[in-house]
Amino acid sequence: MSAIDQSPSDRRAVRAAARRRRERRGFLIAAGSSVVVIGGLALLILTSPGWPDVRETFFSWEAFRTSFPDVLRGFWLDVKLFLIVEAIVLVLGLAIALGRTTRSPALFPVRLLLSVYTDVMRGVPTILLVYLIGFGIPALALDGLPSDPVVLGGAALALAYSAYVAEVYRAGLESVHPSQRAAALAVGLNRVQSLRFVILPQAVRRVVPPLLNDFISLQKDVALISVLGPLEAFRVAQIEASSNFNYTPLIAAAMLYICVTVPLARFVDRMQARRRKAQSAEAVTA
Amino acid sequence: MSRPVIEVRGVTKAYGELPVLRGIDLEVREHEAVALIGASGSGKSTLLRCIDLLDEIDDGDVLVDGEVITDPAVQPHGVRKRLGMVFQAFNLFPHLTVLDNVTLAPRRAHGVPKAEAETRARELLARFGLAGREEAYPDRLSGGQQQRVAIVRALAPSPRALLLDEVTSALDPELVGEVLEAVRELKAEGITMLITTHEMGFAREVADEVCFLHEGLIVERGDPERIFTEPEHPETRRFLRRLLEAKRI
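Above: the input entities. Below: the C-alpha coordinates describing the complete assembly.
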Protein backbone atom coordinates (compact mmCIF):
# COMPACT_ATOMS: atom_id res chain seq x y z
CA MET A 1 0.00 0.00 0.00
CA SER A 2 2.75 2.42 0.95
CA ALA A 3 4.59 1.65 -2.32
CA ILE A 4 1.53 2.72 -4.31
CA ASP A 5 1.13 5.88 -2.27
CA GLN A 6 4.65 6.96 -3.16
CA SER A 7 4.63 9.88 -5.58
CA PRO A 8 6.55 9.49 -8.88
CA SER A 9 9.30 11.78 -7.62
CA ASP A 10 9.92 9.43 -4.66
CA ARG A 11 10.28 6.50 -6.99
CA ARG A 12 12.60 8.50 -9.10
CA ALA A 13 14.78 9.24 -6.08
CA VAL A 14 14.83 5.54 -5.13
CA ARG A 15 15.89 4.56 -8.64
CA ALA A 16 18.57 7.23 -8.75
CA ALA A 17 19.98 6.05 -5.43
CA ALA A 18 20.06 2.44 -6.69
CA ARG A 19 21.83 3.58 -9.84
CA ARG A 20 24.41 5.50 -7.80
CA ARG A 21 25.05 2.40 -5.64
CA ARG A 22 25.57 0.30 -8.78
CA GLU A 23 27.97 2.84 -10.24
CA ARG A 24 29.95 3.10 -6.99
CA ARG A 25 30.24 -0.65 -6.74
CA GLY A 26 31.41 -0.86 -10.37
CA PHE A 27 34.04 1.77 -9.74
CA LEU A 28 35.33 0.04 -6.62
CA ILE A 29 35.58 -3.31 -8.40
CA ALA A 30 37.46 -1.74 -11.33
CA ALA A 31 39.89 0.02 -9.00
CA GLY A 32 40.45 -3.10 -6.91
CA SER A 33 41.11 -5.37 -9.87
CA SER A 34 43.50 -2.80 -11.40
CA VAL A 35 45.55 -2.65 -8.20
CA VAL A 36 45.71 -6.45 -7.97
CA VAL A 37 46.69 -7.04 -11.63
CA ILE A 38 49.13 -4.15 -12.08
CA GLY A 39 50.57 -4.54 -8.58
CA GLY A 40 51.01 -8.28 -9.16
CA LEU A 41 52.86 -7.71 -12.40
CA ALA A 42 55.08 -5.06 -10.83
CA LEU A 43 55.81 -7.33 -7.91
CA LEU A 44 56.66 -10.20 -10.27
CA ILE A 45 59.16 -8.07 -12.17
CA LEU A 46 60.65 -6.23 -9.23
CA THR A 47 61.23 -9.41 -7.21
CA SER A 48 62.65 -11.40 -10.13
CA PRO A 49 66.23 -12.58 -9.55
CA GLY A 50 67.58 -10.58 -12.54
CA TRP A 51 65.80 -7.29 -11.76
CA PRO A 52 68.81 -5.45 -10.23
CA ASP A 53 70.87 -6.19 -13.36
CA VAL A 54 68.01 -5.26 -15.68
CA ARG A 55 67.47 -2.01 -13.83
CA GLU A 56 71.14 -1.17 -14.21
CA THR A 57 71.40 -2.08 -17.94
CA PHE A 58 68.00 -0.84 -19.18
CA PHE A 59 66.98 1.92 -16.82
CA SER A 60 70.19 3.71 -15.90
CA TRP A 61 69.53 7.40 -15.38
CA GLU A 62 73.19 8.20 -16.02
CA ALA A 63 73.23 6.35 -19.35
CA PHE A 64 69.92 7.96 -20.29
CA ARG A 65 71.24 11.45 -19.59
CA THR A 66 74.42 11.03 -21.61
CA SER A 67 72.87 9.27 -24.61
CA PHE A 68 69.60 11.18 -24.92
CA PRO A 69 70.87 14.24 -26.89
CA ASP A 70 72.45 11.99 -29.57
CA VAL A 71 69.38 9.77 -29.79
CA LEU A 72 67.19 12.85 -30.09
CA ARG A 73 69.36 14.15 -32.93
CA GLY A 74 68.95 10.77 -34.63
CA PHE A 75 65.23 10.92 -34.06
CA TRP A 76 65.06 14.25 -35.87
CA LEU A 77 66.26 12.39 -38.99
CA ASP A 78 63.42 9.89 -38.45
CA VAL A 79 60.86 12.68 -38.27
CA LYS A 80 62.16 14.44 -41.38
CA LEU A 81 62.28 11.19 -43.33
CA PHE A 82 58.78 10.27 -42.13
CA LEU A 83 57.32 13.58 -43.29
CA ILE A 84 58.95 13.42 -46.73
CA VAL A 85 58.12 9.75 -47.33
CA GLU A 86 54.55 10.29 -46.13
CA ALA A 87 54.00 13.11 -48.62
CA ILE A 88 55.33 10.92 -51.45
CA VAL A 89 53.24 7.96 -50.32
CA LEU A 90 50.02 10.00 -50.28
CA VAL A 91 50.50 11.13 -53.88
CA LEU A 92 51.92 7.88 -55.24
CA GLY A 93 49.29 5.76 -53.48
CA LEU A 94 46.48 7.85 -54.94
CA ALA A 95 48.00 7.64 -58.41
CA ILE A 96 48.24 3.85 -58.13
CA ALA A 97 44.67 3.56 -56.84
CA LEU A 98 43.31 5.73 -59.66
CA GLY A 99 45.33 3.74 -62.18
CA ARG A 100 43.86 0.51 -60.87
CA THR A 101 40.26 1.73 -60.95
CA THR A 102 40.22 3.14 -64.51
CA ARG A 103 38.25 1.10 -66.98
CA SER A 104 39.87 2.33 -70.17
CA PRO A 105 40.97 -0.68 -72.27
CA ALA A 106 44.09 1.20 -73.41
CA LEU A 107 45.27 1.22 -69.81
CA PHE A 108 44.95 -2.54 -69.35
CA PRO A 109 48.74 -3.06 -69.16
CA VAL A 110 48.97 -0.27 -66.58
CA ARG A 111 46.30 -1.96 -64.44
CA LEU A 112 48.09 -5.28 -64.76
CA LEU A 113 51.46 -3.80 -63.76
CA LEU A 114 49.94 -1.91 -60.85
CA SER A 115 48.22 -4.98 -59.48
CA VAL A 116 51.50 -6.92 -59.69
CA TYR A 117 53.22 -3.96 -58.03
CA THR A 118 50.84 -3.84 -55.07
CA ASP A 119 51.01 -7.62 -54.64
CA VAL A 120 54.81 -7.67 -54.65
CA MET A 121 55.31 -4.60 -52.47
CA ARG A 122 52.84 -5.84 -49.89
CA GLY A 123 54.10 -9.41 -50.11
CA VAL A 124 57.78 -8.67 -49.37
CA PRO A 125 58.80 -7.87 -45.77
CA THR A 126 59.58 -4.16 -45.60
CA ILE A 127 63.00 -4.75 -44.04
CA LEU A 128 63.91 -7.01 -46.96
CA LEU A 129 62.83 -4.35 -49.42
CA VAL A 130 64.99 -1.78 -47.62
CA TYR A 131 67.95 -4.16 -47.91
CA LEU A 132 67.37 -4.99 -51.57
CA ILE A 133 67.01 -1.38 -52.65
CA GLY A 134 69.60 0.04 -50.25
CA PHE A 135 72.32 -2.35 -51.39
CA GLY A 136 71.05 -3.35 -54.83
CA ILE A 137 70.70 0.08 -56.44
CA PRO A 138 74.27 1.26 -55.62
CA ALA A 139 75.58 -2.11 -56.83
CA LEU A 140 74.24 -1.33 -60.29
CA ALA A 141 76.87 1.47 -60.38
CA LEU A 142 74.70 3.51 -62.73
CA ASP A 143 75.31 7.24 -63.05
CA GLY A 144 72.50 9.48 -61.87
CA LEU A 145 71.02 6.98 -59.42
CA PRO A 146 71.24 8.09 -55.79
CA SER A 147 73.61 6.24 -53.50
CA ASP A 148 72.75 8.03 -50.24
CA PRO A 149 71.38 5.34 -47.90
CA VAL A 150 68.81 7.76 -46.46
CA VAL A 151 67.41 8.44 -49.93
CA LEU A 152 67.43 4.76 -50.89
CA GLY A 153 65.89 3.70 -47.58
CA GLY A 154 63.24 6.39 -47.96
CA ALA A 155 62.55 5.20 -51.50
CA ALA A 156 62.10 1.62 -50.29
CA LEU A 157 59.67 2.75 -47.60
CA ALA A 158 57.79 4.90 -50.11
CA LEU A 159 57.43 1.92 -52.47
CA ALA A 160 56.20 -0.41 -49.74
CA TYR A 161 53.80 2.04 -48.15
CA SER A 162 52.39 3.42 -51.39
CA ALA A 163 51.17 -0.10 -52.15
CA TYR A 164 49.33 -0.29 -48.82
CA VAL A 165 47.96 3.22 -49.10
CA ALA A 166 46.84 2.59 -52.69
CA GLU A 167 44.69 -0.28 -51.44
CA VAL A 168 43.19 1.98 -48.78
CA TYR A 169 42.34 4.61 -51.38
CA ARG A 170 40.94 1.95 -53.69
CA ALA A 171 38.65 0.62 -50.98
CA GLY A 172 37.47 4.21 -50.46
CA LEU A 173 36.82 4.76 -54.15
CA GLU A 174 34.87 1.54 -54.40
CA SER A 175 32.82 2.37 -51.30
CA VAL A 176 31.20 5.38 -52.97
CA HIS A 177 27.80 4.23 -54.19
CA PRO A 178 27.41 3.93 -57.99
CA SER A 179 24.37 6.23 -57.79
CA GLN A 180 26.74 9.09 -56.97
CA ARG A 181 28.56 8.51 -60.25
CA ALA A 182 25.25 8.33 -62.07
CA ALA A 183 24.16 11.62 -60.50
CA ALA A 184 27.47 13.28 -61.35
CA LEU A 185 27.22 12.15 -64.98
CA ALA A 186 23.53 13.08 -65.13
CA VAL A 187 24.21 16.72 -64.23
CA GLY A 188 26.55 16.85 -67.22
CA LEU A 189 30.01 16.33 -65.73
CA ASN A 190 32.42 14.22 -67.78
CA ARG A 191 34.19 11.19 -66.31
CA VAL A 192 37.23 13.06 -65.04
CA GLN A 193 35.12 15.82 -63.49
CA SER A 194 32.84 13.24 -61.83
CA LEU A 195 35.86 11.59 -60.29
CA ARG A 196 37.45 14.84 -59.18
CA PHE A 197 34.44 16.70 -57.81
CA VAL A 198 32.13 13.92 -56.64
CA ILE A 199 33.75 10.50 -56.18
CA LEU A 200 37.23 11.36 -54.92
CA PRO A 201 36.25 13.88 -52.20
CA GLN A 202 33.83 11.36 -50.70
CA ALA A 203 36.31 8.49 -50.98
CA VAL A 204 39.15 10.42 -49.32
CA ARG A 205 36.94 11.56 -46.43
CA ARG A 206 36.05 7.97 -45.70
CA VAL A 207 39.61 6.67 -45.66
CA VAL A 208 41.24 9.34 -43.50
CA PRO A 209 41.25 7.15 -40.35
CA PRO A 210 42.78 4.08 -42.05
CA LEU A 211 45.28 6.36 -43.79
CA LEU A 212 46.33 7.79 -40.44
CA ASN A 213 46.76 4.24 -39.18
CA ASP A 214 49.25 3.63 -41.95
CA PHE A 215 51.03 6.88 -41.00
CA ILE A 216 51.54 5.50 -37.51
CA SER A 217 53.16 2.34 -38.81
CA LEU A 218 55.32 4.33 -41.21
CA GLN A 219 56.46 6.58 -38.36
CA LYS A 220 57.82 3.46 -36.62
CA ASP A 221 59.09 1.74 -39.74
CA VAL A 222 61.44 4.58 -40.66
CA ALA A 223 63.71 2.89 -38.09
CA LEU A 224 64.18 0.11 -40.66
CA ILE A 225 66.57 2.27 -42.67
CA SER A 226 69.02 1.78 -39.80
CA VAL A 227 70.07 -1.46 -41.52
CA LEU A 228 71.63 0.69 -44.26
CA GLY A 229 73.69 2.69 -41.77
CA PRO A 230 72.15 6.19 -41.42
CA LEU A 231 72.36 7.55 -37.89
CA GLU A 232 68.69 7.64 -37.01
CA ALA A 233 67.39 7.18 -33.46
CA PHE A 234 67.44 3.37 -33.29
CA ARG A 235 70.87 3.15 -34.94
CA VAL A 236 72.35 5.76 -32.60
CA ALA A 237 70.85 4.00 -29.59
CA GLN A 238 72.24 0.67 -30.79
CA ILE A 239 75.75 2.11 -31.16
CA GLU A 240 75.63 3.74 -27.74
CA ALA A 241 74.27 0.56 -26.21
CA SER A 242 76.96 -1.68 -27.60
CA SER A 243 79.78 0.70 -26.75
CA ASN A 244 78.76 1.02 -23.09
CA PHE A 245 77.15 -2.40 -22.53
CA ASN A 246 74.05 -0.54 -21.41
CA TYR A 247 70.69 -0.77 -23.19
CA THR A 248 69.16 2.38 -21.72
CA PRO A 249 69.61 4.36 -25.00
CA LEU A 250 67.21 1.87 -26.65
CA ILE A 251 64.61 2.74 -24.02
CA ALA A 252 65.25 6.41 -24.78
CA ALA A 253 64.65 5.77 -28.49
CA ALA A 254 61.49 3.78 -27.75
CA MET A 255 60.18 6.67 -25.67
CA LEU A 256 60.72 9.10 -28.50
CA TYR A 257 58.78 6.92 -30.97
CA ILE A 258 55.98 6.60 -28.44
CA CYS A 259 55.90 10.37 -27.96
CA VAL A 260 54.89 10.69 -31.62
CA THR A 261 52.84 7.56 -32.27
CA VAL A 262 50.60 7.64 -29.19
CA PRO A 263 49.25 11.17 -29.78
CA LEU A 264 48.76 10.21 -33.44
CA ALA A 265 46.84 7.10 -32.40
CA ARG A 266 44.59 9.09 -30.04
CA PHE A 267 43.97 11.55 -32.86
CA VAL A 268 42.88 8.64 -35.11
CA ASP A 269 40.56 7.34 -32.38
CA ARG A 270 38.97 10.76 -32.06
CA MET A 271 38.47 11.03 -35.81
CA GLN A 272 36.92 7.59 -36.00
CA ALA A 273 34.56 8.37 -33.15
CA ARG A 274 33.55 11.59 -34.87
CA ARG A 275 32.98 9.73 -38.12
CA ARG A 276 30.80 7.13 -36.35
CA LYS A 277 28.75 9.90 -34.79
CA ALA A 278 28.34 11.65 -38.13
CA GLN A 279 27.26 8.39 -39.75
CA SER A 280 24.66 7.64 -37.11
CA ALA A 281 23.33 11.16 -37.59
CA GLU A 282 23.06 10.38 -41.30
CA ALA A 283 21.26 7.13 -40.53
CA VAL A 284 18.77 8.95 -38.32
CA THR A 285 17.90 11.58 -40.90
CA ALA A 286 17.90 9.16 -43.85
CA MET B 1 2.31 20.99 -83.26
CA SER B 2 5.81 21.82 -82.00
CA ARG B 3 8.58 19.41 -82.83
CA PRO B 4 9.54 16.75 -80.27
CA VAL B 5 12.35 17.52 -77.82
CA ILE B 6 12.78 13.85 -77.02
CA GLU B 7 12.07 11.13 -79.55
CA VAL B 8 12.40 7.43 -78.83
CA ARG B 9 12.28 5.12 -81.83
CA GLY B 10 12.04 1.35 -81.55
CA VAL B 11 14.31 1.15 -78.51
CA THR B 12 15.11 -2.29 -77.14
CA LYS B 13 17.26 -3.20 -74.18
CA ALA B 14 17.99 -6.44 -72.38
CA TYR B 15 19.94 -7.19 -69.23
CA GLY B 16 21.62 -10.39 -70.33
CA GLU B 17 18.80 -12.71 -71.36
CA LEU B 18 16.13 -10.58 -69.73
CA PRO B 19 14.39 -8.18 -72.12
CA VAL B 20 13.52 -4.92 -70.35
CA LEU B 21 12.48 -2.70 -73.26
CA ARG B 22 10.98 -4.44 -76.29
CA GLY B 23 10.54 -1.72 -78.86
CA ILE B 24 9.54 1.61 -77.35
CA ASP B 25 8.30 4.53 -79.46
CA LEU B 26 7.69 7.81 -77.70
CA GLU B 27 7.71 11.53 -78.29
CA VAL B 28 7.86 14.37 -75.82
CA ARG B 29 7.13 17.76 -77.36
CA GLU B 30 8.23 21.15 -76.17
CA HIS B 31 6.41 22.28 -72.96
CA GLU B 32 4.72 18.90 -72.76
CA ALA B 33 4.70 16.50 -69.80
CA VAL B 34 4.49 12.81 -70.58
CA ALA B 35 3.89 10.38 -67.73
CA LEU B 36 5.02 6.76 -67.88
CA ILE B 37 3.01 4.48 -65.64
CA GLY B 38 3.16 0.76 -65.09
CA ALA B 39 4.08 -1.89 -62.57
CA SER B 40 7.55 -2.11 -61.02
CA GLY B 41 9.83 -3.86 -63.48
CA SER B 42 7.86 -2.71 -66.52
CA GLY B 43 10.93 -0.80 -67.77
CA LYS B 44 9.98 2.80 -66.91
CA SER B 45 13.16 3.68 -65.04
CA THR B 46 15.37 1.83 -67.52
CA LEU B 47 13.88 3.90 -70.32
CA LEU B 48 14.75 7.14 -68.52
CA ARG B 49 18.28 5.94 -67.79
CA CYS B 50 18.71 4.99 -71.45
CA ILE B 51 17.56 8.42 -72.61
CA ASP B 52 20.09 10.05 -70.27
CA LEU B 53 22.73 7.60 -71.62
CA LEU B 54 23.32 6.12 -68.16
CA ASP B 55 22.40 2.77 -69.69
CA GLU B 56 23.14 1.64 -73.22
CA ILE B 57 20.32 0.63 -75.53
CA ASP B 58 20.58 -2.46 -77.73
CA ASP B 59 18.59 -1.33 -80.74
CA GLY B 60 16.65 1.69 -81.99
CA ASP B 61 17.46 5.36 -81.55
CA VAL B 62 16.91 8.20 -79.11
CA LEU B 63 16.84 11.74 -80.50
CA VAL B 64 17.10 15.03 -78.67
CA ASP B 65 16.04 18.04 -80.74
CA GLY B 66 16.31 15.91 -83.84
CA GLU B 67 19.86 14.72 -83.16
CA VAL B 68 20.50 11.01 -82.72
CA ILE B 69 22.13 10.85 -79.28
CA THR B 70 22.50 7.09 -79.14
CA ASP B 71 25.05 7.15 -81.94
CA PRO B 72 28.30 5.75 -80.51
CA ALA B 73 30.17 8.78 -81.88
CA VAL B 74 28.17 11.19 -79.73
CA GLN B 75 29.85 12.43 -76.52
CA PRO B 76 27.55 11.31 -73.69
CA HIS B 77 28.32 14.25 -71.37
CA GLY B 78 27.44 16.66 -74.16
CA VAL B 79 23.99 15.05 -74.31
CA ARG B 80 23.53 14.93 -70.54
CA LYS B 81 24.28 18.65 -70.37
CA ARG B 82 21.08 19.18 -72.37
CA LEU B 83 18.93 16.92 -70.17
CA GLY B 84 18.24 17.07 -66.45
CA MET B 85 17.54 13.99 -64.36
CA VAL B 86 15.98 13.63 -60.93
CA PHE B 87 16.37 10.27 -59.20
CA GLN B 88 14.10 8.35 -56.89
CA ALA B 89 16.70 8.39 -54.10
CA PHE B 90 17.65 12.07 -54.64
CA ASN B 91 21.37 11.22 -55.10
CA LEU B 92 22.50 14.59 -53.81
CA PHE B 93 26.24 14.97 -53.28
CA PRO B 94 26.57 14.49 -49.50
CA HIS B 95 29.93 16.25 -49.22
CA LEU B 96 28.66 19.47 -50.80
CA THR B 97 26.32 22.11 -49.43
CA VAL B 98 22.94 22.66 -51.06
CA LEU B 99 24.33 25.65 -52.96
CA ASP B 100 27.37 23.71 -54.18
CA ASN B 101 25.18 20.78 -55.21
CA VAL B 102 23.24 23.15 -57.44
CA THR B 103 26.17 25.16 -58.83
CA LEU B 104 28.55 22.24 -59.49
CA ALA B 105 27.27 21.43 -62.98
CA PRO B 106 26.73 25.01 -64.19
CA ARG B 107 30.25 25.94 -63.07
CA ARG B 108 32.19 22.85 -64.07
CA ALA B 109 30.27 21.49 -67.05
CA HIS B 110 28.88 24.72 -68.49
CA GLY B 111 31.63 27.16 -67.48
CA VAL B 112 29.27 29.63 -65.82
CA PRO B 113 31.19 32.04 -63.54
CA LYS B 114 30.80 31.30 -59.82
CA ALA B 115 28.92 34.48 -58.89
CA GLU B 116 26.47 34.11 -61.74
CA ALA B 117 25.86 30.42 -61.00
CA GLU B 118 25.23 31.21 -57.33
CA THR B 119 22.82 34.02 -58.08
CA ARG B 120 20.75 31.76 -60.27
CA ALA B 121 20.96 28.90 -57.75
CA ARG B 122 19.74 31.15 -54.91
CA GLU B 123 16.87 32.35 -57.06
CA LEU B 124 15.81 28.82 -57.96
CA LEU B 125 16.19 27.56 -54.39
CA ALA B 126 14.03 30.41 -53.14
CA ARG B 127 11.39 29.67 -55.74
CA PHE B 128 11.21 26.05 -54.54
CA GLY B 129 10.89 27.04 -50.88
CA LEU B 130 14.51 26.41 -49.96
CA ALA B 131 15.66 29.94 -49.13
CA GLY B 132 17.89 29.87 -46.06
CA ARG B 133 19.03 26.29 -46.67
CA GLU B 134 21.82 27.18 -49.11
CA GLU B 135 24.65 26.39 -46.72
CA ALA B 136 23.09 23.23 -45.25
CA TYR B 137 24.43 19.78 -46.07
CA PRO B 138 21.94 17.32 -47.60
CA ASP B 139 21.83 15.06 -44.53
CA ARG B 140 20.41 17.95 -42.51
CA LEU B 141 17.37 18.22 -44.79
CA SER B 142 14.12 16.26 -44.87
CA GLY B 143 13.53 13.88 -47.78
CA GLY B 144 11.12 16.34 -49.35
CA GLN B 145 13.63 19.17 -49.11
CA GLN B 146 16.37 16.94 -50.51
CA GLN B 147 14.25 16.01 -53.50
CA ARG B 148 13.42 19.66 -54.14
CA VAL B 149 17.15 20.44 -54.06
CA ALA B 150 17.64 17.62 -56.58
CA ILE B 151 14.99 19.19 -58.81
CA VAL B 152 16.70 22.58 -58.56
CA ARG B 153 20.06 20.92 -59.29
CA ALA B 154 18.65 19.35 -62.45
CA LEU B 155 16.99 22.61 -63.45
CA ALA B 156 19.95 24.94 -62.82
CA PRO B 157 21.73 24.38 -66.15
CA SER B 158 18.45 25.14 -68.02
CA PRO B 159 18.10 21.74 -69.67
CA ARG B 160 15.96 21.15 -72.75
CA ALA B 161 13.94 18.57 -70.81
CA LEU B 162 13.73 17.03 -67.35
CA LEU B 163 13.58 13.30 -66.69
CA LEU B 164 11.87 12.60 -63.37
CA ASP B 165 12.30 9.04 -62.14
CA GLU B 166 9.82 8.10 -59.38
CA VAL B 167 10.62 11.33 -57.57
CA THR B 168 8.20 10.67 -54.71
CA SER B 169 8.68 6.93 -54.21
CA ALA B 170 11.38 7.21 -51.55
CA LEU B 171 9.50 9.81 -49.51
CA ASP B 172 7.47 9.51 -46.34
CA PRO B 173 3.79 9.95 -47.25
CA GLU B 174 3.50 13.37 -45.59
CA LEU B 175 6.41 14.69 -47.71
CA VAL B 176 5.02 13.61 -51.09
CA GLY B 177 2.84 16.68 -51.45
CA GLU B 178 5.60 19.27 -51.35
CA VAL B 179 7.56 17.50 -54.09
CA LEU B 180 4.48 17.11 -56.29
CA GLU B 181 3.88 20.82 -55.78
CA ALA B 182 7.41 21.47 -57.06
CA VAL B 183 6.70 19.41 -60.19
CA ARG B 184 3.45 21.33 -60.74
CA GLU B 185 5.53 24.49 -60.63
CA LEU B 186 7.81 23.04 -63.33
CA LYS B 187 4.78 22.23 -65.45
CA ALA B 188 3.39 25.72 -64.99
CA GLU B 189 6.68 27.13 -66.25
CA GLY B 190 6.40 25.02 -69.37
CA ILE B 191 9.37 22.76 -68.66
CA THR B 192 9.37 19.75 -70.98
CA MET B 193 9.19 16.63 -68.84
CA LEU B 194 9.20 12.87 -69.04
CA ILE B 195 7.97 11.47 -65.74
CA THR B 196 7.73 7.99 -64.31
CA THR B 197 5.40 7.82 -61.35
CA HIS B 198 3.25 5.69 -59.11
CA GLU B 199 1.10 8.69 -58.18
CA MET B 200 -1.83 8.18 -60.54
CA GLY B 201 -3.82 11.19 -59.41
CA PHE B 202 -0.79 13.31 -60.03
CA ALA B 203 -0.12 11.80 -63.47
CA ARG B 204 -3.71 12.49 -64.39
CA GLU B 205 -3.47 16.07 -63.25
CA VAL B 206 -0.11 17.14 -64.61
CA ALA B 207 0.50 15.01 -67.71
CA ASP B 208 -0.50 15.90 -71.26
CA GLU B 209 -0.13 12.29 -72.24
CA VAL B 210 0.01 9.08 -70.23
CA CYS B 211 1.78 5.96 -71.49
CA PHE B 212 1.16 2.62 -69.84
CA LEU B 213 4.15 0.30 -69.94
CA HIS B 214 3.73 -3.42 -69.62
CA GLU B 215 6.66 -5.82 -69.85
CA GLY B 216 8.81 -3.45 -71.85
CA LEU B 217 6.13 -2.26 -74.27
CA ILE B 218 3.86 0.77 -74.31
CA VAL B 219 0.56 -1.08 -74.62
CA GLU B 220 -1.67 1.96 -74.30
CA ARG B 221 -1.23 5.72 -74.50
CA GLY B 222 -3.36 8.77 -74.70
CA ASP B 223 -5.15 11.55 -72.90
CA PRO B 224 -4.88 11.07 -69.10
CA GLU B 225 -8.64 11.45 -68.55
CA ARG B 226 -9.39 8.70 -71.03
CA ILE B 227 -6.67 6.33 -69.78
CA PHE B 228 -7.87 6.58 -66.21
CA THR B 229 -11.62 6.50 -66.95
CA GLU B 230 -11.91 4.30 -70.03
CA PRO B 231 -8.76 2.17 -70.34
CA GLU B 232 -8.92 0.00 -73.45
CA HIS B 233 -6.13 -2.51 -73.04
CA PRO B 234 -6.87 -5.39 -70.65
CA GLU B 235 -3.46 -4.97 -68.95
CA THR B 236 -4.13 -1.28 -68.30
CA ARG B 237 -7.48 -2.17 -66.79
CA ARG B 238 -5.96 -4.86 -64.62
CA PHE B 239 -3.19 -2.50 -63.45
CA LEU B 240 -5.62 0.28 -62.56
CA ARG B 241 -7.99 -2.14 -60.85
CA ARG B 242 -5.18 -3.44 -58.66
CA LEU B 243 -4.28 0.11 -57.70
CA LEU B 244 -7.93 0.82 -56.89
CA GLU B 245 -8.13 -2.26 -54.69
CA ALA B 246 -4.98 -1.13 -52.87
CA LYS B 247 -6.61 2.30 -52.47
CA ARG B 248 -3.73 3.93 -54.29
CA ILE B 249 -5.97 5.97 -56.58
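Note for the figure: The domain at 4-92+160-245 of chain B is CATH 3.40.50.300 (Rossmann fold).
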